[in-house]
Every structure is written in structure tokens, then in C-alpha cells.
User: What shape does this take?
Amino acid sequence: MGGEGRDPWIVGTVMRWLSVIAVLVGFLVASGWLPIIPASANSAASSSTGGTSTTLVPIADATPTLAVPLTPTPHTPHIGIIAGHLGSDSGALCPDGLEEVQVNEEIARRVVGMLRQRGWDAELLQEFDPRLEGYRADALLSIHADSCTFPGKSGFKVARAESSYIPREEDRLVRCIIDRYRTATGLAFDANTITYDMTRYHAYNEIDPDTPAAIIETGFLLDDRELLVEHPEIVAKGIVDGLVCFIENQAP
Ligand SMILES: [Zn+2]
Assistant: This one.
């Protein structure tokens, strides 16, 4: 009965000491004197090895991290390749019956295949393909070849629209293709015979103005015939290298 009066006093004293200890611990932790030891799943593993290797976790690392993906999904380049005259007409004709459209299609199909092998989204388009209306892609290239009528004419040409909405982008596309195509094929760049057929090419007016586009004349069907017909894989490689240069922002 007599002890009843003392119990509140003991409780009060214990509470005061607990408060003092709590403040002291808080001060020591904040000042770095007392390390925080995490009660994580690792502690079970470390205690089984003797408990001596407990790791100290800084307060910053202990805060939960947001589940935001660090690497954004990579963009898959989308490329349109027009096989010149395909689905429309023969294009240039040789006396022995060789048609430009055959040469263009063989090269264009190889280019599309090689781009797909890189994991890119490439598609083969016809000369007047309905998909060209408002066409959106990372690049559009139309593949043609030059006439079969002028002996002594050799070389290739690349051009973009004369009234371009994105001249800097398209100039870079043209420079990339010129440089890589020349390197792969050894053909000379023939700037002197670029015609309105190339700079006012019909597809430029059909596609989305933000799609970088160009046209290539891969060579002359008479003097460059061996390269164009016998080695379409070299021709295709030069074009693919040029597109890779443009898409991957390499120096032309
Ligand atoms: Zn043509």
C-alpha cells in the first residue's frame, strides 16, 4: 500500500532518462559518431559469416529510389527506299533490253535487306507509291540510274529538293551518301549533270516536309554497267553506309 505513492515517481524518472538517452543518441547519430547499422536481408548472410562484416549504409543510400528506367528505349530508325520506276515504267533502256527499273529494284531490295539486318525499320516503296503521301521517316532515298545512251559518261549524282524545308538536314544526308558511296564504289561524283528531275523530284512534294529526302543516280547504265549489274552488293553497301552516316550523325 505504501509503495503506491512511489510508483509515479519511478515512472517519471525512467521517462526522463529515456528522454535524455534518446536526445543523446539522436545527437550522436546526427553528428556521425554513432553509425546506423541496417537491418536488411544481408545482415542474415553477414551474421552467418561471423557478423563481423556488417556494412554501414549512409543515410542518403537508405532512402527509397524511384522506379524510373535509366535507359530510354532506343529509337529504331525508319527508312523509306524508293526503287526508281518500280510499278510505273521501265526508266532508261539499253539496246540489249536491259531496263533501268530492273537495276534499281535489285539495288533497292538489297539496301532494304541490309538495313533490316541492322535492326532498322526499312521499307521498299514504288515510284508512285500511295504511302508517299505525307510519308514520315528518318530518311527517304529514291534510287535511280542514268541513261544507257552516252558512251564515255561515268559517275553518280545525289541531290535533295531545291526548295527544302530542312536544308541543313538534307544537305547532311546528301553529303553522307556522296562520301560513303564514292568510297564504296570508286565512282566519281558528277555534280555537273544534276537535272530538275532530281531537284524537283515528285516525291519531295508528296512526303511530310520534315522527312529528310534525297535521290541518287547510282551510275550510267552504259559505262558503269559492270558495277551496277554485276556488283549490286557494292552499290547497296555504299548507299547503306551513307544512310548509317546520316542516321548515326557521323562526319560525312
Ligand atoms: Zn530513273
Summary: The first strand starts at residue 78 and ends at 83. The mean pLDDT is 85. The chain has two domains: 8-62, 78-247. Residues 8-62 form one domain.
